[in-house]
Amino acid sequence: KQEVTQIPAALSVPEGENLVLNCSFTDSAIYNLQWFRQDPGKGLTSLLLIQSSQREQTSGRLNASLDKSSGRSTLYIAASQPGDSATYLCAVLVSGGSYIPTFGRGTSLIVHP
Amino acid sequence: NAGVMQNPRHLVRRRGQEARLRCSPMKGHSHVYWYRQLPEEGLKFMVYLQKENIIDESGMPKERFSAEFPKEGPSILRIQQVVRGDSAAYFCASSPPGQGNTIYFGEGSWLTVV
What is the mean pLDDT of residues A36-55? Predict the structure, then answer.
């Protein structure tokens, strides 16, 4: 059974810092990995999708990397802003089976001015 | 192209009543997922459906919970005889046909059982 862990659980940083959020998974036979953002009381917004054959994806100030062999992904946020404050979740889709994304518990990020 | 639409956004039910949560997937999407999120917990998978078929319901409680995705109309998550422990946010997500595509989430339905 796939288990997804996100570290740290919470993070508070001053504006302008570069951040790294971590996601680890136990079954390396993944199809893809997706990073989401969730604001309080809202749904999840997809940020980046990395296919198993890819090593990284970039969108603006966000960069996500994937290392299947070690079961890890990182989300790098450059030059953080208060508007980046949210919970960040990663979801892993395992190959085979019924292709159901498994989520970590998320990292709650606060960027203060 | 409208996103995943869920309604109601907020629902209050007394213990023992029924709750019906609706989800209209994005246009062209044939896969629907339901997840439950409790305070301070992650998203827990409940059920995965394609049109008129339940593909995987391994996360659904054995009693009182059911889901459907008919040929026409939205997907429905139905909770009978609600209890206080059913209070949670219920999220629906959809994806296009095929495997491994980006999934898109609705804004959620917040159920409160009083």
Answer: 93
